[in-house]
Design a protein that fits this description.
Length: about 120
């Protein structure tokens, strides 16, 4: 079983930056995707970014391209999300995901494991 723990959420003013981190424990496959999703009140959970743990290829939602950067700065069981130029529309609970089943990286059904989420609030 794999457990994911997120950290780094908080409140920031529009235009500010935050960095989210996620650490996976347990039997994470050597080849996997780790991703970030978010869910705003009343909305469905959506894919924000993902990274392949083999090769480091990255994927982004159009809404965050050029502002967010996903990376694995320290180890293959960790993933970070650097968020710059934050906007009020970025306010949501952010979730880390792993255990990719293949298919579209941005679909929630393609991931087996989820963290508890961390709140990001951007005030204008």
């Amino acid at each position: 079983q794999v457990q994911l723990v997120e950290s780094g959420g908080g409140s920031v003013q529009s235009g500010g930056s935050l960095t989210l981190s996620c650490t996976a424990s347990g039997n994470l496959l050597a080849s996997d995707f780790m991703g970030w999703f978010r869910q705003a009140p009343g909305q469905e959970r959506e894919g924000v970014a993902a990274i392949s743990t083999i090769g480091g290829r990255t994927y982004y939602a159009d809404s965050v391209k050029g502002r967010f950067t996903i990376s694995q700065p320290q180890a293959k069981n960790m993933v970070s999300l650097q968020m710059n130029s934050l906007e009020s529309e970025d306010t949501a609970i952010y979730y880390c995901a792993a255990g990719f089943r293949g298919g579209a990286w941005g679909e929630t059904s393609r991931y087996r494991y989820w963290g508890q989420g961390t709140q990001v609030t951007v005030s204008s």
